[in-house]
C-alpha cells in the first residue's frame, strides 16, 4: 500500500517522468535550456525532496542530468529517437562469447580491449 501522504508526489513524479521520456524519445526540435531548467532539474529536486530515503539509480541520473546536454551537443537539439540501445544489446552476444572463449578469466580489461579492437575502424 502507498501511504496517503506519498500518493500525490508519486502521481506527479510519474507524470513528469512520462512527459520527459516522451520528449527524449521524440524526433522533434527541443528547447534544451527550458527542458533542463524546468523539467529535468525540477524532477531531480522533487525526487530528493519528496523521497529523501530513495536513492537515484545511475540510469535515472543519466536521464535527468545528462540527456539535455546529449540532445543539445550530440543531436543538434532534436530528441533522441534515432539513438537506441539496440547496438549495445546486440553486443551482449559478443561479450558473452569473448568472456567464455577469448578472455583471460576474470579480466574485464581483456574483454574491453577485444571489444575495442573489434569495433574500431581502420583506414587503409
TrEMBL record:
<protein>
    <submittedName>
        <fullName>Uncharacterized protein</fullName>
    </submittedName>
</protein>
